[in-house]
Design a protein that fits this description.
The complex is a heterodimer of chains A (381) and B (305). Chain A is α/β, with parallel strands linked by helices and 381 residues long. Chain A has helices at 2-17, 39-56, 72-84, 97-109, 141-153, 167-179, 198-207, 219-229, 249-252, 272-285, 291-309, 315-324, and strands at residues 26-32, 61-67, 90-92, 113-116, 133-135, 158-164, 183-190, 211-214, 237-240, 260-263, 335-336, 342-354, 357-370. In chain A, strands 6, 7, 8, 9, 10, 11, 12 and 13 form an eight-stranded mixed beta sheet that branches. In chain A, strands 2-1-3-4-5 form a five-stranded parallel beta sheet, sandwiched between helices. Chain B is mostly helical and 305 residues long. Chain B has a two-stranded antiparallel sheet. Classes of the chains: A alpha/beta (381), B mainly alpha (305).
């Protein structure tokens, strides 16, 4: 609290010193996960976001960051505080869908804009879509649906599927099954934040599956992969980018090599915005950006583009400016569907060792111009 | 469902239960001997894991890390007993809960400041990597070693309490602490030793489990909750009760997570069954605890008759 006040005082003093000519910066509140097993995701979203602000040289945004500890009740409290005492006009940052479900509906109802840099639970994308809710990442099903389609291409016919028991986990398995044509050898929901997968690995071993699809982001995926590598089970894994993202590859190591995973972005995606982003991120933080960092970066640039075009206090104009999505996304083409979730391409990536570092490289396109299936239920036009 | 799968799940349950026992043994001893509710027991588990991870990374030797983790947890336990806990013996349980809850916050934040917010990873020692063939199924060698380790510690703890002078004093302390003080036993030193012993066991569990899972801030709290369930089921203060309770909780939790979705799948659609089954399985041990409390309100092996 005190530190934040000090930073704010410092920033205000600097604004005054600069002549006070610039309009007051817009407060963006970032509620994200900076501790525990999910910390890698939140740190990357934050770092990507801050990098975009720094690169723009703009002082249009005052960013306030707080750690939700991956706890819904804490996220709700932070959101209230950011709206009431920080006077935030825009909130962003939430990583986990169960936290997003707890925070987003009340935030958007208070006429505050929420822009998701990561979670995209299906209930917020369909009939309950909201003019104040934008998703700059994906609807949850998207990457998993692409993974299901790619499992067909790989010739898998009997896949064991697994995800944590929370909104994004059910979306993941629903998404995977939408295009997958083989049979399901077994279907498991694990606990969110679970760290021991012995009981699940035993069931995979006994299932007779020819492949595994799992969605276990952050520390969960690291724990699973390390235990899987020691288990003697050796089935191929197909997954979405979350479980094989740059934030966890160093901890998983060689066990991840060769795994195919789907993502709307990859560090080697060939466009000018991405080349500039990856180079600047490596320069600033000394590591390769993850999928989450790319989403944080895009979210910040989306906000900056809308602030340049409209006044945030004129909500209608500001929402229209956001909807135009007039910024250079690091994932290439980017537009919003009617439910204000992205229309974008989903790629296949493969974990590989590039220049001595374990990372992802692009191997192909999975789905072009994907629009999530819930958009049709959204009454917004 | 095959016999091989059943065997593997029983082993998983045993392994989980034995690690829970290491955690609950200290908790139940401290409560039995000193009448103290120590919520910070999970933090000692965390300290053991962090120190083990750091020492193993620095020396390249898991066993040195394990020894360092145990020693650090025991030392932290002794320090906490002398600085904080000693002032709480005469206060009621609510004050103890408040003070030890504060310790959780202090130790978690302290660990975060020292080691950063990211999880650390501890490698399984090379000699225990890979799997062993148990005839019916392959099983990870390290988990098998954890089972052996847990049993060895349980036997050692039993010998300590049943066969040594320290053990006699601990048992006497549980029965009548004024009397043993009157008989000339240094009760303050005994309390410190018991607390450090419990802390060392928790640290050992943290370090051992850290090698298969991840070492992160707050890793002790979920285990602490389970350890409380264990000692309530087993009877507070009873080591034997902690053993039986830990094995019950370990096996029932593992089997529940594995069998309940299958049971529901017989009359429900598969994906729904796995969701409902997973949700119910996570409640199963609390149902067990409630049942035990209804039938035997003082636990399975109550200490004072």
């Amino acid at each position: 609290m005190d530190l934040r006040k000090m930073l704010f005082a410092g920033a205000s003093a600097m604004a005054l010193a600069a002549g006070g000519a610039a309009a007051d910066p817009v407060t963006v509140g970032m509620i994200t996960t900076l501790s525990g097993g999910g910390a890698g995701l939140g740190v990357d979203v934050r770092d990507g976001f801050q990098l975009a602000l720094a690169m723009s040289g703009s002082d249009a945004v005052r960013l306030v960051v707080e750690d939700d500890g991956q706890r819904p009740e804490q996220a709700v409290q932070i959101a209230d505080r950011m709206i009431q005492s920080e006077r935030a006009d825009i909130l962003t940052g939430i990583i986990w869908s169960n936290l997003a479900m707890a925070v987003v509906p009340s935030v958007t109802a208070q006429d505050v804009i929420y822009i998701s840099p990561n979670a995209g639970p299906s209930p917020l994308a369909g009939a309950n879509c909201h003019p104040n809710y934008f998703n700059a990442a994906w609807q949850n099903d998207m990457l998993h649906e692409a993974a299901g389609a790619y499992a067909n291409t790989l010739g898998y016919t009997n896949t064991f599927i697994m995800a944590p028991n929370y909104p994004a986990g059910t979306d993941a398995l629903t998404g995977f099954k939408r295009r997958y044509q083989g049979t399901i050898a077994g279907e498991l929901y694990t606990q969110l934040g679970q760290t021991d997968y012995a009981a699940e690995i035993a069931q995979i071993r006994a299932s007779g599956a020819d492949s595994i699809f799992m969605f276990l982001p952050g520390g969960m995926g690291i724990s699973f992969m390390r235990q899987y590598a020691q288990s003697g089970v050796d089935l191929p894994i197909v997954s979405a980018a979350f479980t094989f993202s740059q934030d966890m590859l160093p901890a998983v190591g060689e066990a991840a090599l060769g795994v195919y995973n789907t993502g709307q972005w990859s560090p080697d995606l060939d466009n000018a915005a991405n080349a500039a982003f990856v180079a600047a991120f490596r320069e600033a933080y000394g590591r390769t950006p993850s999928l989450y960092a790319s989403q944080g970066y895009d979210t910040a640039n989306l906000i900056l583009s809308a602030l340049a075009a409209a006044d945030v206090d004129d909500r209608d104009a500001f929402r229209a400016a956001l909807r135009a999505a007039n910024f250079d996304s690091v994932r290439g083409d980017f537009a919003f569907a009617n439910n204000q979730h992205p229309i974008q391409d989903v790629y296949i990536r493969q974990v590989a060792e590039v220049d001595g570092q374990i990372t992802n490289r692009l191997v192909g396109l999975a789905i072009e111009d994907y629009v999530d299936p819930y958009a049709a239920q959204c009454p917004m036009q | 469902m095959t016999l091989a799968l059943l065997l593997e799940q029983v082993l998983n349950g045993l392994q989980f239960g034995l690690m829970l026992f290491l955690m609950s043994a200290g908790l139940t001893l401290v409560f039995g001997v000193m009448g103290l509710i120590n919520l910070a027991h999970g933090s000692l588990y965390m300290i053991g894991a962090f120190v083990c991870a750091v020492a193993a990374a620095a020396t390249g030797n898991f066993w040195l890390g394990l020894a360092a983790g145990m020693a650090a947890a025991a030392a932290a336990g002794a320090l906490i007993e002398i600085v904080v806990i000693r002032r709480l013996y005469d206060r009621d349980h609510l004050d103890q809960v408040l003070a030890t809850f504060a310790l959780i916050l202090i130790l978690s934040e302290g660990t975060k400041i020292l080691f950063g917010p990211f999880p650390l990873y501890l490698n399984v020692p090379p000699i225990l990597r890979g799997t062993v063939n148990l005839g019916l199924t392959d099983y990870p060698l390290y988990r098998l070693a954890l089972i052996g380790f847990g049993i060895a510690v349980a036997v050692g703890l039993w010998a300590l309490i049943a066969r040594t002078r320290l053990g006699i004093r601990i048992r006497a302390g549980e029965n009548d602490r004024e009397m043993i003080a009157a008989l000339g036993v240094n009760i303050r030193a005994l309390y410190t030793v018991v607390f450090a012993l419990g802390a060392g066991l928790a640290g050992m569990a943290g370090a051992l489990v850290g090698a298969v899972q991840s070492v992160q801030v707050g890793m002790g709290e979920p285990v602490l909750i389970l350890a409380f369930v264990v000692i309530v089921i087993g009877g507070i203060g009873s080591i034997k009760g902690a053993m039986v309770g830990a094995l019950l909780v370990g096996v029932i939790d593992t089997m529940g997570r594995f069998l309940l979705p299958r049971v529901f799948a017989t009359f429900m659609e598969a994906s729904q069954a796995s969701g409902v089954g997973a949700a119910l399985a996570s409640m199963l041990i609390y149902v067990l605890m409630a049942l035990v409390l209804v039938l035997k309100p003082r636990g399975l092996y109550p200490l004072h008759g």
